[in-house]
Write a structure and sequence with these properties.
single chain; alpha+beta; four-stranded mixed β-sheet; about 15% strand; binds flavin-adenine dinucleotide
């Protein structure tokens, strides 16, 4: 990496440095796809609240969305880090991987706990891009973060379960064929531990919409294609129960580290985009007859954001390495999620401030990326809940809930 005599790193050098990252072929290939989906593509979708179907098709055809599916089922069988790199590059290129990421982070539950029949039936179809597993129904309107209190019930009736209840913020439900659903199969007052009695189902939405399942889009701050899903006597075949009845909460928890590691990559990608975009603009924008990047008031927030992103990335790599080695990585996965979301937010703030009034002009994409980066502080897990995990499970402080 070369440095200009001023000590500042040029925007091109910044990218060159990152090109030397791990999985260079994957990064290069994702960048080539993303080049066909520039800022104008994402802006238009954002304005129309539309789904990036063409982008999802391109990513599917390139095999990226089956990265985590084992080769025996037609996937690439790549490690979690490689899947994360795919998401990171999409974000670093200015796009948004939210339309595609759930297929990666719900995959672990199906792989680890699904039956041989379920895997043989669904995974090759997902790998081939003929089925989308992009909907994940956990959050409910009245219970929120307190997942074990969720009220959606699934009651066994012969060779089916009958599902009643409601989910909220179920993203991509209108664009997915399958939903991984968490519902209560034994009432909470009949179990010893509140984490018991919850079960996971792989719901075939093609057979469900209009037959007990209704989906309503939510108008949101970002284009996340998120929805409310209502269940009214929806019949789900018992064959679609994942693993054992009543153990669903544990299965979902099992997948949390992978989910945190994957979405941390998106934040790191966002941070890289913000820093690169801010550096470029600060170097080119002339005010008072000199580039604004000469002012330390402009330089320092960008430099600080860069430092935060670098540190967060190190924690992310540690989390991914421990995950790959099969070691416990709850601490690293949570810290990584916290630090990367904060790094992206700080970088977004620096980029907004560097762009002055032009940050608000949609054609720069800065305000869109800033809005999009914010969600990582709330979903899929909010900052407070991560801090509670660190305080109580890592530092041994008394439990607060
Ligand atoms: C764009 C978007 C997409 C989403 N996609 C999905 C999806 O696909 N599937 C899905 O299931 N969910 C999804 N979610 C839901 C998301 O996971 C939840 O919004 C998130 O977990 C927080 O839940 P809540 O909104 O009910 O907040 P609440 O649980 O009501 O919490 C509100 C605030 O209080 C804090 N809080 C609550 N309890 C405590 C406590 N004990 N200690 C300290 N602080 C506390 C929280 O941290 C939060 O800041 C999505 C959300 C958004 C915004």
């Amino acid at each position: 990496m070369t440095q200009a005599s001023s000590g500042a790193v040029s925007a091109d050098d910044f990218m060159q440095h990152y090109a030397a990252d791990d999985y260079p072929e994957i990064r290069e290939s994702v960048r080539r796809i993303c080049a066909d989906f520039p800022g104008s593509y994402w802006r238009a979708l954002d304005e129309q609240e539309a789904y990036p179907s063409e982008f999802v098709t391109a990513m599917t055809q390139a095999g990226f969305l089956s990265a985590l599916i084992p080769e025996q089922y037609g996937g690439a069988g790549l490690p979690l880090r490689a899947a994360g790199v795919i998401l990171e590059e999409v974000h670093a290129c200015g796009g948004n991987a939210a339309a595609t990421h759930a297929q990666m982070y719900t995959m672990g539950t199906v792989l680890r706990h699904g039956s041989a029949e379920q895997k043989a039936r669904y995974l090759p179809e997902i790998a081939a891009g003929r089925l989308r597993l992009q909907a994940f129904g956990v959050t409910e309107p009245t219970t929120g973060t307190d997942t074990t209190k969720l009220k959606t019930r699934a009651v066994r009736d012969g060779d089916h379960y009958v599902v009643n209840g409601q989910k909220i913020w179920t993203s991509r439900a209108l664009y997915s064929d399958l939903m991984l659903l968490l519902a209560r199969t034994t009432p909470v007052d009949q179990v010893t531990r509140k984490t018991d009695g919850l079960s996971v189902f792989l719901v075939d939405m093609r057979e469900s919409v209009g037959h007990g399942m209704t989906i309503r889009p939510i108008k949101a701050m970002i284009n996340h294609n998120t929805t409310e899903v209502f269940f009214d006597n929806l019949r789900v075949p018992a064959a679609n129960l994942i693993g054992e009845e009543g153990k669903g909460f544990r299965y979902i928890l099992d997948g949390m580290n992978a989910e945190r590691i994957l979405v941390s990559h998106e934040s790191i990608g966002d941070a890289k985009w913000f820093v690169r975009t801010a550096v470029k603009y600060a170097s080119e924008r002339m005010v008072f007859d000199r580039p604004i990047g000469k002012n330390q008031g402009i330089q320092f927030p960008i430099a600080r954001a860069y430092a935060q992103a670098q540190a967060a990335e190190l924690m992310l790599r540690k989390a991914a390495a421990k995950f790959a080695a099969g070691l416990p990585c709850g601490e690293e996965a949570n810290l990584s999620k916290l630090l990367s979301a904060e790094a992206a937010w700080e970088a977004g703030e620096a980029c907004m401030q560097t762009h002055g009034g032009f940050a608000y002009a949609r054609e720069y994409d800065v305000e869109r990326k800033w809005r999009e980066a914010r969600v990582q502080r709330t979903a899929p897990v909010s900052t407070n809940l991560i801090l509670a995990y660190v305080a109580e499970h890592v530092l041994g402080l008394p439990r607060s809930y």
